[in-house]
């Protein structure tokens, strides 16, 4: 009833008029025991509280002073309520003050009323004073809660319709630092908000103790006593400061000394990011010693390092989000470049040195804890200064080089800057101690920087995940160092210093005092040049060449005595040799093309024709064959990780297509012999490509037959389901069986074959491997060679049909013979047969020892060799085998036939590697030739 009455304008004005008249007539009117005016005035205030608790009532109260029906003698309701707050707090007035604060809190939820209260009354300061003064008194708890509620509403922390007041909030935070906008807007309990004001705090964000509370109380008393204009909230926030905090360094709202001392350094993410930016700005503005707060910069640098360790993500976000020119991180570089000796007395500025070390610590902290490498990019211009600092502190500390190492590991941008500017030359000179020093002390001090500089190079080579940085570092080192020393630096930088000072003379490295001195002089010359140009200014080692040099390899020096050379990096050398070999062979094949009617060109013939690259290809082939056979791990790596075997097949087919069937094809076959067990060659196409040189009368059929025999052994050694083709069928379809049988029965032209018996033994081994594959019980015979050109592709004319006489296979008769245990002979190379060997020409004769001959003095007489004779086989202890056995195997059983034609089982001789078994023939005339031993 009362609320509805007061909702009308006339009723509200009547209530306000009653409240004002009672307030002007009496001083205290809350209790019923007082006068009539006191009682009526208390009721009217409670009516105003009820009106302010409604939305309509708040709107009416906000604009009641503008109503035309209002009497001029009646004060506005805000003035009446504010007057109630000014009363002294005692037991009589406390309830009325609480009512007045509640009315203001409710009216402050309306935006217009909120603005009127802040601009025309001192209610905000009165309410804050009540909280500060009476917050510790339990009896005044309701009063304190009402005052705090009024402060929160007027500052915009409460109320749906109330607008935030940043100027009021900043003034409140300036007086009570713990009451930050975030804390006050979090709707924390009233007891917690009040209790924090009366606690002593000593944390990075806040320092609060009793003296500061007294200062706030005195300041509020002054404001209320002198009636400072209510709209001066901005001035309060800007001008007020605590005298108790004088001398306490603070940046970005963080007390530096408290933050450094710890132990609690945890900051909210937003606060930490802002603190980082404010620190860098402060350091940049006060980097010059003459600035007012220069003395606090050392503490600020230490705090920045701690902030980076504890809040690295926030530091990253702050550095990446700030855009300034120059970047904020340049402040660290400014302090790092300080501490240079003064020109007047040659001493050091101790303060500057301390700040330089602190700035270096900050950079190292950034490199260790920041995950985003782009944060460190602004520090690139200070890399050269770090090296200068390292030279100044040589013999004392290697901290600048350690800092540069960590920066290169963490940031590809810094590593690229080092390698693309002249910084890398200074760093290289430091690693090899290229500079000349006058005194022994300077020399010894510079020597201490060699290993830390090598560690920086290791960071450039391995520290970054960017492949471009690693490749660029290798290219820079190749301009000045041999590969062997570069690889030592890559593998173990700690050993580089010792390897650099150690002399060497081998196929990979020619290194001595003279070359070291030349390199140091050249690098010192580069340091004196403002802008060295490469590759014009690279180190020249051509005066050390001994013959042919391929990449990083002295080829002729190696071939002089390959067995005595132990390669440091065989895989790298082999890779370089293969690359040059493929390039030179591609140029040689067109020059070695010939007619199919002429004999294949040999190496001397190509040299006579002016093909100079043939000699280099021969040297490369010799070196590669030795390396692949000597270093098994290199061969395995090449087979697994490269396409060399496939490339060899393509090159062999290219040689046959372009009719380079002589020396180039021999080089290819020699490498294929090394990798003959590879699965790439175990194909029908590979077998065809290898058998074609036999048809074209290759100059070294032993090489071809040995490769074919190895491929067949690998093929037949697999289980039947894993065999990709039928070897016998392929050989017959290609028409190659007759060619192989021609070497078996001696009908093939072996006039130029140096070891005809070995060639025949290889052909026999191949034929016997193919024999168990034939389903026909009759022995394998030479397939009649067709007379059409289509049967022999790539042949100019069909060769004459050879005459092959094969004895019929007799029936095996079991017999027992005495078996002799003779071990299988495996040799590294060619061996001389003993002079009195049972199957030799000199059996039964004693001959004088003959002098050894060189290969150039040997003239092989092939006319004395009877190709129709097959040397008898050496008996072994192998078990008996039936002649009809059809299991695939690489050995065969030889049978003896007596004069009546009956067959006796002889012992089996297994030919594992025919090229390693030595055979010889008897001279039909019975005159033994001289027993000569050939040294190849």
TrEMBL record:
Biased amino acid composition, Acidic residues: 900-912
GO cellular component: endosome membrane
GO biological process: endosome organization; receptor-mediated endocytosis; regulation of early endosome to late endosome transport
Source organism (scientific name): Aphanomyces astaci (Crayfish plague agent)
Disordered: region residues: 831-851, 875-912, 917-936
TM stretches of this protein: none
InterPro entries cross-referenced by the UniProt entry: GRV2/DNAJC13
Compositional bias annotation for Pro residues: 927-936
Superkingdom to which the source organism belongs: Eukaryota
Name of the molecule in the record: Uncharacterized protein
């Amino acid at each position: 009833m009362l609320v509805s009455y007061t909702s009308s304008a006339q009723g509200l004005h009547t209530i306000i008029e009653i409240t004002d008249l009672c307030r002007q007539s009496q001083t205290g009117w809350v209790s019923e025991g007082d006068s009539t005016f006191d009682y009526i005035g208390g009721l009217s205030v409670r009516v105003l509280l009820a009106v302010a608790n409604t939305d309509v009532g708040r709107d009416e109260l906000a604009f009641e002073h503008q109503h035309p029906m209002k009497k001029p003698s009646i004060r506005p309701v805000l003035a009446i309520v504010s007057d109630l707050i000014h009363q002294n707090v005692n037991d009589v007035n406390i309830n009325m003050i609480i009512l007045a604060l509640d009315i203001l809190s409710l009216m402050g939820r309306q935006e217009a009323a909120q603005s009127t209260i802040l601009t025309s009354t001192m209610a905000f300061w009165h309410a804050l004073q009540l909280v500060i003064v009476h917050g510790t008194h339990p009896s005044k708890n309701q009063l304190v809660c009402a005052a705090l509620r009024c402060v929160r509403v007027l500052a915009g922390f409460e109320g749906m319709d109330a607008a935030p007041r940043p100027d009021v909030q900043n003034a409140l935070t300036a007086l009570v630092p713990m009451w930050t906008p975030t804390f006050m807007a979090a709707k924390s309990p009233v007891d917690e908000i009040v209790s924090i004001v009366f606690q002593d705090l000593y944390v990075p964000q806040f320092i609060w103790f009793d003296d500061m509370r007294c200062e706030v109380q005195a300041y509020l008393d002054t404001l209320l006593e002198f009636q400072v204009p209510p709209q001066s909230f901005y001035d309060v926030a800007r001008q007020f400061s605590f005298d108790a905090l004088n001398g306490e360094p603070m940046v970005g709202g963080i007390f530096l000394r408290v933050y450094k001392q710890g132990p609690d350094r945890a900051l909210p993410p937003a606060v930490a990011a802002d603190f980082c930016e404010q620190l860098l700005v402060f350091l940049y503005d006060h980097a010059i010693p003459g600035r007012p707060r220069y003395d606090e910069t050392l503490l600020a640098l230490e705090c920045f390092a701690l902030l980076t360790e504890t809040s690295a993500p926030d530091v990253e976000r702050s550095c990446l989000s700030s855009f300034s020119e120059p970047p904020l991180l340049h402040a660290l570089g400014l302090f790092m470049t300080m501490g240079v000796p003064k020109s007047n007395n040659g001493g050091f500025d101790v303060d500057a040195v301390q700040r330089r070390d602190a700035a270096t610590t900050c950079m190292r902290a950034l490199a260790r804890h920041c995950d985003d490498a782009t944060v460190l990019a602004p520090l690139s211009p200070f890399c050269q200064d770090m090296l200068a600092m390292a030279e100044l502190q040589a013999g004392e500390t290697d901290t600048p080089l350690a800092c540069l190492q960590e920066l290169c590991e963490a940031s590809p941008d810094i590593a690229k800057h080092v390698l693309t500017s002249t910084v890398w030359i200074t760093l290289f000179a430091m690693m090899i101690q290229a500079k000349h020093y006058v005194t022994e002390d300077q020399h010894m001090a510079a020597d201490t920087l060699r290993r830390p500089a090598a560690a920086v190079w290791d960071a450039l080579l391995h520290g970054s995940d960017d492949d471009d940085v690693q490749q660029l570092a290798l290219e820079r080192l190749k301009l000045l160092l041999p590969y062997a020393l570069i690889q030592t630096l890559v593998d173990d930088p700690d050993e580089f210093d010792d390897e650099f000072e150690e002399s060497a003379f081998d196929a990979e490295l020619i290194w001595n005092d003279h070359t070291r001195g030349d390199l140091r002089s050249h690098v010192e010359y580069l340091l004196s040049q403002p802008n060295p140009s490469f590759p014009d200014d690279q180190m020249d080692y051509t005066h050390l060449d001994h013959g042919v040099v391929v990449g990083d390899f002295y080829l002729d020096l190696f071939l002089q005595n390959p067995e005595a050379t132990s390669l440091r990096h065989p895989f790298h050398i082999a890779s370089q040799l293969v690359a040059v070999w493929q390039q030179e062979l591609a140029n040689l094949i067109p020059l070695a093309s010939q007619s199919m009617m002429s004999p294949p060109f040999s190496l001397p013939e190509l040299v006579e024709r002016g093909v100079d690259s043939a000699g280099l290809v021969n040297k490369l082939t010799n070196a590669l064959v030795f390396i692949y056979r000597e270093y098994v791990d290199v061969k395995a790596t090449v087979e697994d990780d490269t396409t060399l075997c496939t490339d060899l097949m393509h090159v062999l087919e290219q040689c046959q297509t372009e009719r380079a069937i002589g020396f180039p094809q021999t080089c290819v076959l020699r490498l294929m012999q090394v990798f003959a067990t590879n699965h790439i060659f175990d194909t029908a196409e590979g077998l065809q490509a290898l058998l074609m040189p036999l048809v074209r009368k290759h100059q070294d059929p032993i090489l071809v037959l040995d490769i074919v025999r190895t491929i067949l052994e690998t093929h037949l050694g697999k289980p039947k389901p894993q065999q990709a083709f039928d070897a016998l069928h392929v050989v017959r379809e290609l028409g190659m069986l007759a060619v192989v049988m021609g070497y078996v029965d001696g009908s093939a032209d072996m006039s130029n074959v140096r070891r005809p018996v070995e060639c025949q033994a290889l052909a026999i081994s191949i034929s016997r491997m193919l024999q168990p594959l034939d389903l026909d019980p009759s022995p394998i015979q030479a397939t009649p060679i067709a007379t059409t050109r289509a049967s022999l592709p790539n042949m100019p004319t069909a060769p004459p049909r050879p005459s092959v006489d094969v004895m019929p296979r007799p029936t095996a008769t079991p017999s027992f013979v005495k078996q002799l245990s003779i071990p299988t002979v495996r040799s590294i190379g060619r061996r001389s047969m003993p002079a009195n060997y049972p199957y030799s020409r000199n059996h039964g004769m004693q001959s004088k020892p003959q002098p050894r001959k060189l290969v150039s003095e040997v003239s092989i007489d092939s006319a004395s060799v009877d190709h129709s004779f097959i040397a008898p086989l050496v008996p072994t202890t192998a078990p008996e085998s039936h002649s009809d056995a059809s299991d695939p195997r690489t050995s065969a059983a030889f049978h003896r036939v007596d004069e009546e034609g009956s067959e006796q089982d002889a012992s089996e001789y297994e030919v594992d590697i025919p090229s390693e078994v030595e055979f010889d023939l008897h001279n039909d005339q019975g005159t033994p030739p001289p027993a000569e031993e050939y040294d190849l």
